[in-house]
Amino acid sequence: MVGDFLLQKDPLFARLTLADDEMRLYETILAQLAPSVPAPDLVIYLQAQSDTLFDRVTRRGDPIEAGISEAYLRSLSDAYTRFFHQYDAAPVLMVNTEHLNPIDRAADFDLLLSRISKMRGRREYFNLAA
Known about the structure:
With about 130 residues, the protein is mainly alpha-helical. The protein has two domains: about 10-35, no CATH class; about 40-125, Rossmann fold (3-Layer(aba) Sandwich), CATH 3.40.50. The protein has five helices and three strands, in the order ααβααβαβ. A three-stranded parallel sheet has the order 1-2-3, with helices on one face. Strand 2, helix 5 (about 105-115) and strand 3 (about 125) form a beta-alpha-beta unit. Helix 3 (about 50-60) packs across helix 4 (about 70-85). It starts with 9 loop residues before the first helix and ends with a strand.
């Protein structure tokens, strides 16, 4: 099974967007959900610089993302980096996507799949040079 959601990272968004009273409610709900969520077999963390992320969001042109600022993406990216450098509930493959585009380039997607199949440690890094 492949998923695009990791409950343990969800609070990163909440801390950046919710008011204090909303955050308390969120934490109450999260405490009820967390025990029933299994740890994944592998987490793939796709990272890029905030200006690259902003460019990708802008190019997508999704109306729901129209209000996302580069400053917000920078804050979120920093929070992700801190989170995944400490995360140890599952193996993590950190993938720098500055020069790897598995969405638009089939060869890059195949390269990523190959790298995933070769992963043997609990934490590994994949960075395709420019």
